[in-house]
Amino acid sequence: MRQKSFGNTRFTVSAIGLGQMPLSISNRPEEEQAIHVIHEALDAGMNWIDTANVYCKDHEDIGHGERLVAKALNEWSGDSDKILILTKGGLARPNGDWITEGHPDRLKEACEASLKAMQADCIPVYQLHAPDPDVPFTDSIGALKELQDQGKIENIGLSNVNVTEIQIAQEIVDVVSVQNRCNPFDRNSFLNGVVNYCTKENIAFLAHSPVGGHRDHFRNSQSPVMNRIAERREMTTYQVCLTWLMAQSEVILPIPGASRVESALSSAAAGDLELPAEDLAELRMAFPTQHLG
What we know:
- Strands 3-4-5-8-9-10-11-12 form an 8-stranded parallel sheet. It has a two-stranded antiparallel sheet with strand order 1-2. A two-stranded antiparallel ribbon has the order 6-7.
- It contains 13 helices and 12 strands.
- The protein is α/β, with parallel strands linked by helices.
- It has a single domain (3-286), classed as NADP-dependent oxidoreductase domain (TIM Barrel, Alpha-Beta Barrel), CATH 3.20.20.100.
């Protein structure tokens, strides 16, 4: 699979990473199957995994995703030291709900718990899961800076942010990644300038829900243009979607989720695919990305 630099870091990663969330939330597969999916993704060339402390069922299950990834790596036959693991803090799951929790004290507690769940002394990339409207954004970023200064996290990323928030964070820390929802049917990060800004600043843009996520993935198979190109190139519509995303900027790194081996292998294979100019032009007409700013 093609390799890309991960922002301004020492890491070189596969063009596509594994989004671990479907393996830990409601309707997740059995642990044995989940670990099998991770192993197959790694064997297929994916060398980074995105997880979070709140990839779980509820508040009593916090850290499930991180523990699962740690166990999968411990049981994997490959060199786990070459696999980059990203996690996040800043949300909570009371009774299964999703709420922001960006207070510095809560972030520090979450980081400590993630270190334990991941069986790690230092987290390679730790991302603020979302700005908390009840906490000054600079306070949340300041907490991450303290954790970095203490050697508990190596690099700092953001998630679910706009350009202004990225710029505010950059006044305090070096932002190496931005993880926002992004796919042909949800192009807000193109239209509001986030992708352009990340490209200019060489910040890794991690496109979550790159084929639509749980609620919109069916739109790929219903899209006439996606189907035409998929049939023409002997690809799946999901692979067309991932390949389109990667063609938009060198800093875009999609993180498709997978709960089945077939899905993980299909996504991994897309990391070596490219679309010719005429296909990209056709997709550009269907899914314009010119930003508004």
